[in-house]
Amino acid sequence: MRSITKQLLCAVTCLSIFIQPSCKKYLDVVPDDVATLESAFANANETQAYLFGCYAPLQMLADIRRNAGFTTSGEIMFPYPLQDQSTLGGPGGDAGFSIIRGLQNSANPVLNFWDGYNMGLNMWQAIRRCNIFLENSHIALDLPEFQRKRWNAEAKFLKAYFHYWLIRMYGPIPIVDVNLPVNASIDEVRIKQQPVDSCFSYVIRLLDEAIVDLPPVIQNLAAEQGRISGTIAKAVKAEVLVTQASPLFNGNPDYASMKRGDGTRLFASEYDDKKWERAMNACKEAIDAATSAGADLYQLRISGGVVHLSDITRRMLTIQGAFVDSWNSEQVWTLNPQFGWQYMASPRVTAEAAANVFAVYSNLSVPIGQSELFYSSNGVPINEDRLWDYKNRYKLQAGDDAHAYYIKKGYTTVKGNFNREPRYYADVAFDGSVWFGSGNLDDNNPNYVNAVNGFAAPPDQLRYNATGYWAKKLVPYQTTFGQNSVQQNYSWPFMRLTGLWLLYAECLNEVNGPGAEVYKWIDKVRERAGLQGVVASWSQYSSNPDKYNSKDGLRAIIHQERRIETAFEGQAGWDLRRWKELQNVLSTPLLGWNVFNRTTEGYYQIRIAQQTAFGVRNYLYPIQDYDLLTNPNLVQTLYW
């Protein structure tokens, strides 16, 4: 639950060269470094260094450009076309965002984690390295047995997680439990995909084996920050089982006909409700472990220099801080690499930032549809709230006293920005919205977003926000952009306690249906957001007041709650896939405002910011065509 050690980070940096794409095919399962194994495991120090090399691919997964949960979620889009290749790290850095535009292909797949191309990592090399460690950790004679067991458990966790990452992307995959010998024949190297349930079972077995020998928490933070704990492993196990129980993998008719060449079915054709039971039990075990380890809701930690801070702003900073304040008690699992793309998520809220086009790019754009996902101030969807004027949400309205800490008083924006829940104002910035921070820590006279006057879209049409909405959640209030920009860097959380609560609520509903126990876990999340519980909110304000009383209705509530709570965290893309709901989200173009217009009336004209193309085949990724030629035992993902 803590950051990675400097020693580990150094090893990751030094060893990252080994995860570059290899020209070898099949699965790169034949080790090419046998001659160096004796020296690599000569003593405890060298063995630990090799283990840190096993961590390297995991740390690189914190890069949002590589995470399909972020780039293909529909909650963030990247404007096209752009001529400036310096955005997002140069050519290819924005590749993941192209998938929702229909540009995925099997000849040269985007986010290729099978071979390590197009912003993907070669997961088979990562798995091979874990196997090498497990096969050779006994060589170091000065390594105490208790330490060896723990290090082996870490390697097992990493191997399990790398397999899990591949399963989420490709479905049925080969299982590489041991490395093949150097003299393996071509036929031996041409291994086969295993049924998807067998793949999940293998991952769970590895995690169970690892949990036994992992410490519940990391005690020596100075030396071991960032190492895997038993609590992290239990939380990941819960997520794995929830994924297996979800519609994409549990009796999905879309993939029922997918078979190997020998006739083996790769997807179970029947739905199994027992999978939800196993996931439910794992979620509760993970929550109990996290609680015992000290996990709790985040408490705001304020830096110096604050002039005035209202209770309203304090709540918004608490909601945001749960994500951007690194290694806090709410973050069950965090990866160390610092989030380096704050300038892509921030608007220009000062004249100094607007004058320096290289200080802020703003390209990470939030579609109007994502902004409308957040609830009204009554805690229900805006299209269900009987008291919220959904029909006239695009009409213009000036900021008032009641919203002074959310919207600049007197500034004209759209009506849809008024009377929204606190998470909306904490997570999303828009034309006229207040921006506490960026050098101004007085919320009686704060900065604000002046998008109509060109702060959203400079004339170069390169460093601009395409929709008029920004992922404010990703930019800590301490960050300042201008002639001398200063970023408050933070490590990327892979799992927060509130997300784990909502996974448990999801399982409870699928197993037992609606009831007090399910509402309890949803309401714990809503309470921190300043909202009433599910029953009270829907009963009083929703046009569908009984929605929470049916399993289907409560499922929809839980799904929306999770999308709101984990917005922009790299979770939604995976959730929408496993729920088989991403196709619905991307069935219509992503919309935004007319950001290049310099009048209020002209700016607030809805335009298509990006066309989308996402069909059934996009739920799972294609294997590169060349891999199918070199290994005839592989079966291409259906529909590719």
UniProtKB/TrEMBL annotation:
* Recorded GO CC terms: cell outer membrane
Determine the domain of life of the protein's source. Answer: Bacteria
Record Pfam families = SusD_RagB (PF07980)
The main location class comes to membrane
Q: Which SUPFAM superfamilies match?
A: TPR-like
**Keyword Endoplasmic reticulum on this protein?**
no
Please provide the record's keywords in A-Z order: Cell outer membrane, Membrane, Signal
| Alphabetized InterPro entries for the sequence | SusD_RagB_dom, TPR-like_helical_dom_sf
The places in or outside the cell where this protein is found are:
Cell outer membrane
Q: Which residues form the RagB/SusD domain?
A: 360-640
Q: Which family does it belong to?
A: Belongs to the SusD family.
Q: What is the official name of this protein in its record?
A: Putative outer membrane starch-binding protein
Q: Which organism is it from?
A: Chitinophaga ginsengisoli
